[in-house]
Specification:
- It is globular, with a radius of gyration of 22 Å.
- By secondary structure, it is an alpha/beta fold.
- α15 runs parallel beside α17 and α16 crosses α17.
- 38% of the residues lie in helices and 17% in strands.
- A hairpin with a 4-residue loop joins β4 and β5.
- It folds into 2 domains: 129 residues, Aspartate Aminotransferase, domain 1 (Alpha-Beta Complex), CATH 3.90.1150.10; 278 residues, Aspartate Aminotransferase, domain 2.
- The chain is built from 17 helices and 17 strands.
């Protein structure tokens, strides 16, 4: 490194020692900008992080939509500690370990009826690619191998694997890899409209007709070529885009009509975010496959999963080659013992403390608090569902995203960690949140919005 780089990257920590920031290439981060003024966290407990300069920062987004049971849960720590002492790793290819099966049973119990065949992965991105492969394998197994086309949705986020960004609809994620995305993919229009939906509370009344665009896509490509449709029941990463009333039901009807599998990406909505175990349960719409990750084990050890219907699972397994492998897919760390131990402990916490029901009971408080910011400077929309919400700000002329970024930084300086994407601030506090925390979050956000021109 040259001297200038040394000056930029060597920062003082609260312990008085130097921390070299140059080696870590940070994901989804403006690295030069961050390293010039880093925001560093060193501890977490309950609803709060502690920064390296010993400030308490309330977590208004569950880490990254994932720490649903709150930080520093002793039950999870004990489970992982016990497991690593007993067995740190075991392979899942042609071998097994009891805790993997136990974890699958716990997850299956909270999935919609019939979606109880669990394939473990290590992240949401891996879960999406796994679900897409399962969908293709299902149609091959039933003698319709020509069904290879996949349908995603504009503004959809399905991780960063090539499959996920292909069916995803966030332009910056696709642009750099546009020549290498998988072929045979089409996209539904997104469901968000400021003109018709601004300041909606819960599901907007307008927009169910947008699902009928699937009929046009089916007619264009012929239904016999389409394997699956994948959508987020509620899109999180694109800025909390809430499905219109009747929209998901209509997608289910069209998929059933043409024999197309429906995949719900529940990496964010799974495990209590909307006040139910899954968004599928919340909306009363059962897909054929559900992808999950994040809150499956409170984000304590990387883990994801796909829940498959028995119809999908049995079609693939029962039509397999006798004693041979039915699905040529998997990961070295599928059902990793530590992740599985954390999963079991987390699922027990959810059940013991009734955290899904708690989220439902706290949703009206969040709705009231976030919508109280209507009329604040530059606020052009507020939306919410369950224990999640978003505030959309008017972009600055020629500087898209700048106003939200500055508000995000100001919030952190004032002791609240929020999430931003584009000019949207997103909120998804841990399910243990109390009234006082919600008040603290949105009173701080109000001050931050007022302070940013």
């Amino acid at each position: 490194m040259n001297d200038m780089t040394d000056d930029i990257n060597l920062q003082n920590t609260s312990a008085g020692t130097s921390l070299d920031l140059s080696n870590y290439w940070m994901p989804f981060t403006a690295n030069k900008q961050f390293k010039a003024a880093p925001r560093l966290l060193k501890r977490a407990k309950g609803m709060y992080y502690t920064s390296v300069d010993d400030r308490q920062v309330i977590d208004a987004v569950s880490g990254l939509w994932c720490v649903n049971a709150g930080h520093g849960r002793e039950e999870i720590t004990q489970a992982v500690t016990k497991q690593i002492a007993e067995m740190d790793y075991a392979p899942s290819f042609q071998m097994g370990h009891p805790i993997a099966f136990e974890a699958a049973t716990h997850v299956a119990k909270v999935m919609p009826k019939g979606l109880d065949r669990i394939f473990f992965t290590n992240s949401g991105s891996e879960s999406v690619d796994t679900a897409l492969k399962i969908a293709l394998a299902y149609h091959r197994a039933r003698g319709e191998g020509q069904r290879t086309r996949l349908i995603g949705r504009e503004r959809g986020y399905h991780g960063v694997g090539f499959g996920g960004i292909s069916v995803g609809g966030i332009s910056p994620n696709r642009k750099a890899f546009s020549a290498n995305l998988i072929p045979g993919v089409d996209h539904l229009p997104h469901t968000h409209s400021l003109e018709h939906m601004a300041f909606s509370r819960g599901q907007p009344a307008w927009g169910a007709h947008l699902a009928d665009e699937l009929e046009r896509i089916v007619a264009l490509h012929d239904p016999s070529t389409i394997a699956a449709v994948i959508v987020e029941p509620m899109a999180g990463s694109a800025g909390v885009l809430i499905p219109p009333q009747g929209y998901l039901q209509r997608l289910r009807e069209i998929c059933d009509k043409y024999g197309i599998l429906l995949i719900f990406d529940e990496v964010i909505t799974g495990f209590g975010r909307l006040g139910k175990a899954t968004a599928s349960e919340y909306f009363g719409v059962t897909p054929d496959l559900i992808t999950m990750a994040k809150a499956i084990n409170n984000a304590s050890v990387p883990m994801g999963a796909v829940a498959a219907s028995r119809k999908v699972h049995d079609t693939i397994v029962d039509n397999g080659p006798g004693n041979g492998i039915e699905l040529f897919h998997g990961y070295t760390y599928s059902a990793h013992p530590l992740a599985a131990a954390a999963c079991i402990a987390t699922q027990k916490i959810y059940q013991k403390e009734n955290l899904f029901e708690r989220a439902a009971s706290m949703a009206p408080k969040l709705e009231q608090a976030i919508h109280s910011l209507k009329g604040e400077p530059h606020v052009i929309d507020i939306r919410n569902l369950g224990l999640v919400g978003a505030i959309e700000l008017q972009p600055r002329e020629g500087q898209p995203g700048a106003r939200a970024y500055e508000t995000f930084v100001k919030c952190f300086e004032m002791g609240v960690m929020v999430r931003y994407t584009g000019d949207i601030l997103a909120f998804a506090p841990p399910l243990i949140v109390e009234d006082k925390h919600i008040d603290e979050i949105f009173s701080t956000v109000r001050k931050a919005i007022r302070s940013v021109a």
